[in-house]
Amino acid sequence: MTRPFEVGVVVRDLDLMERFCCDIIGCRAEHRSRVPESIGGPAGLGGELVVVWLWVPSGGCVKLILPRSAPVSAHAAPLPAGRPGLSYLTFHLDDMDPVVAALPTAGARPLSDPVVVRARGRRISFWADPEGNVVELVDARGGDPVPGHSN
User: Fold this and answer.
1) pTM assigned to the model
2) What is the DSSP track for 71-118?
């Protein structure tokens, strides 16, 4: 591999999700552009796209993708994490408490009770973002993470 990992998330409201990822999660917008139908169509994304590349401070990139020709359907319920395919994005934080406190006012909702649980000596928390995508927060306070594992 030659560059850090990237993941693309198709969104309904690009501005809302950009604010959520930057203001709450801590990503930074690096680039925004239109992708022509000649690329978006063959990629199975419905044609012309608007894409925002968000830099993740620990490395990698989240691409927020808004299809322009085939808008994403109205609000959907969060997809179950146990289904085949991509289940959730994990963000490792030094201190999740300020992020967890800000999530409800940003339109996210907790997916567990209690909201923060201990697993393998770490604190974790699962949330549905404002569009229903599942986000896992991991805080290593209380123990060292197991190398190569998100939980």
Assistant:
1) 0.80
2) PPPS--PPPPTTSSS---EEEEES--HHHHHHTGGGT-EESSSSSSEE
